[in-house]
Amino acid sequence: MGKFYDLMDRELRIRGFAEGTRKLYLQSMRCFVRHFMRPPDELTAEDVKQYQLYLTKERRVSWSTFNIHVCAIRFFYRNALPVTWEVEQIPYQKTGRRLPVVLSGEEVVALLEAATNLKHRAILMALYSGGLRASEAVHLRLEDIDSQRMMIRVAQGKGKKDRYVMLSEKLLATLRQYWLESRPDPWLFPGPDRSHPLTRESLAKFFGRVREKAGIRKRAHPHTLRHSFATHLLERGVNI
Questions:
Q1: pTM (2 decimals)?
Q2: For residues 219 and 204, what is the distance between their CA atoms, to the nearest angstrom?
Q3: CA 107/CA 228 separation, integer angstroms
């Protein structure tokens, strides 16, 4: 896409889009342009419809992937390269509804016991006991753990909002043990370069290894612990 890639990237950054969303939009738009092998300023509304048909009939993408492509194309032709044709007429695909995968209490215990690396166990416990998203857990800092109030401060979570979540006694004990062993600073869960946090990709990789070691066959991933946290609270009658 050349200059158009840079133009779209600029508009996404100006509007404060999350890093993951920005990458998805740019990749989706790149696939759209590459499909026709023509610059985006030469493509028309009819080309968009042909591409949507290609996604549906040939690539057979899921409705969620289809709609990501639509969001990216709409954003590009609305903000990066405004066009005369009606961008809002680009249709979305009807969305489905899937129940999330949820681990049982026994499976959560098995997962944590399989995580013999203390750092890995600590972050998995944080994901579950705090109902955190992966991006929120890896960006925790030492000062976010408030042992006086037994709260965890989540800074700039989804929607760039701050919030507090509960800090369990078991998690606090594990974090103290982990801190004495590793002395992380400033990130609670640093990556190989201690000046940067652990990446979500690294978290997903070791989660997969621990899941297999625990003998869990469900298609679980780090976000599954957040779903499990909420489900278990509801099952216990807690007003979430």
A1: 0.73
A2: 12
A3: 10
